[in-house]
Amino acid sequence: MTAAASASLDRYMAARGRNRRRRWLIYLAMAVAAIWCLNDTVVADTDWERIGSLGAILSAVGEFIGIDWGLVPNLWQPALETIMVATLGTLLGVITCIPAIWFGAMNITPYAPVTYPLARLMMTLSRSIHEIVWALFFVAAVGLGALAGVLAIAVRSVGFIAKMSAEAIEDLDPKPVEAIRAVGGNDFQVFLYAILPQVLPAMISVIIFEWEINIRRSSILGLVGAGGLGLVFFRQLNTFNHPGVTTVIAAILVLVLLGEIVSHYVRKAVI
Amino acid sequence: MTVSQSIAGAPVREWSRIKYPQSLYRWGGIMLALMFLGYSIAYLNIPLERFIGMFGRVGTLITDRYYPPDIEYVLDKGYLATVLDTIRMAYLGALFGMLMALPLGWFGAYNVTPSRRFLYPVARFLTMGTRAVHETIWAILFVTILGFGMMAGVLALTMFCIGFAGKLFSEEVEGINMGPVEAIRATGASQLSVMVYGVFPQVRVAFTGIAIYTWDVAFRAATVVGFFGAGGMGWYLKRNVLQIETNRVAAILLSIIVLVLVSEGISAWARARVARAK
């Protein structure tokens, strides 16, 4: 082996060792941070008397085992409500996010220094505030009922749909746009015949994915007074009917699984 | 858009973008969707007049009650301590969740799973189940079993992260290059060695990115698990919502937005660095 080759090998091995040491240091720092957090939060903040022995925990868990079949006929209506709230919320979210998409895509935004940050702000607001908080806000604004849930879901969906669609529009091929302009199309025709056909499959796929997530979200909005399975869950928990709680969770699981299957096939059909 | 064109001798033909059978399915689909829409509005008793009047009401709600936010309240020492608690809770939940999601990501990836008959469906079901149940439901369940406190919150976030990271991990593993895996299998290595030497080096960078992203998402979820008594700043939020201290609620929401923005910034920076270190 020549000297040059062995020197470069030495350099390579040294770099590899350095990387490896750095990685282990990061792991060590993570472990230390975890111990510190565990000690300060979980150990200090837990009421160990209340938890009791392992047997007590197991018996508390055991209460939840089993399915309350008597509850199943009462679940159809809330399950339907949950799906409807998710669907309406997603649709309303799609309508609401049109301005956010328009302003938030760098290549079609009307006046970038103002409208682009505005759209980004809309997206961040929608994504950073949890659906429970949105639901509380809308319950205060429009009163109890499904409408508050629909609005909460809609506002919460804006961020994700707008972000993904704006990114899709930023990536689009400019040639069809030029072609439509060259034959004398106006802005609206450019949008309808050049931009929309390019981004529609991606957008529909995002919307369906969001709908699937929204089923999961709308299943808990009943906790703050917006109807659906969450309300049944809350009632079963408050009446200490623990098998009933398990039943509702199983129903949510089935619902989400159905949503996933539908979303899988529809997205496959669209793309 | 229809265009009629006439060429001498040829019959006049209508041009349309979508032709007969497809156009029928299309209109049928749209009509069905509209019918479902109308039916569900009627079924859910949604008062449309209230929806129209909502915009004015939301405006006055914000200007009269939520504005101005009570900033001093969120700069209070007790509140800042719960913010730190929330961050730590999110960290622990994401860490434990990811440690458990690693084997699930391995078992749930169809191309390298040790047993397609048994472990694959089990891992898939576990990630699906933990993801399908919303984090607030996990929080409520753990609070009922273990009592109030951070432990319930950490466990709820752990469950949430198992589902979230497990799905992303297994999708990442399913996209790998199978060449190195086959090479290591050909040497007679065990399933674990295949994972450690064939799969893991290929996905390490992506996993780190996913890990950072999971922490980011866990933090957003951590801000509300306290709502049901599982520790962190959610409890402050709930208390002030119930007491209709709307100015304080506005301040807390603002603080959440700022924190989420900061965590998003950190996560984007860290992910970019990890991608560069590749």
Describe the structure.
The complex is a heterodimer of chains A (271) and B (278). Chain A folds into 2 domains: 3-46; 74-270, MetI-like (MetI-like fold, Orthogonal Bundle). Helices cover 81% and strands 0% of the residues of chain A. Chain A has helices at residues 3-45, 48-51, 54-62, 76-104, 112-128, 131-142, 146-170, 174-182, 187-218, 229-238, 242-270. In chain A, α4 runs antiparallel to α5. Chain B has helices spanning 20-43, 48-66, 71-74, 77-107, 119-132, 135-146, 150-174, 178-186, 191-225, 234-242, 246-277, and strands at residues 3-5, 13-15. Chain B has 278 residues and is an all-alpha fold. In chain B, strands 1-2 form a two-stranded antiparallel ribbon. In chain B, 38% of the residues are buried. Chain B has 2 domains: 18-66, no CATH class; 71-277, MetI-like (MetI-like fold, Orthogonal Bundle), CATH 1.10.3720.10. Classes of the chains: A mainly alpha (271), B mainly alpha (278).
Percent helix range of chain B: over 70%
Number of helices of chain A: 11
The secondary structure category of chain B is mainly alpha
* Radius of gyration of chain A from CA coordinates: 26 Å
CATH class of the largest domain in chain B: Mainly Alpha
State the CATH class of the largest domain in chain A: Mainly Alpha
The largest interface is: A-B, 57 and 55 residues
Oligomer state of the chains in this structure: heterodimer
Low-confidence stretches of chain A: none
Average per-residue pLDDT of chain B, rounded, comes to 84
How would you sum up the major sheet of chain B?
Answer: 2 strands, antiparallel
Biggest sheet record of chain A: none
| Structural class assignment of chain A | mainly alpha
What coarse outline of chain B follows from CA principal-axis ratios?
flat
Give the tally of β-strands of chain A. 0
**Shape assignment of chain A:** flat
The level of helicity of chain A is over 70%
In total, the number of strands of chain B is 2
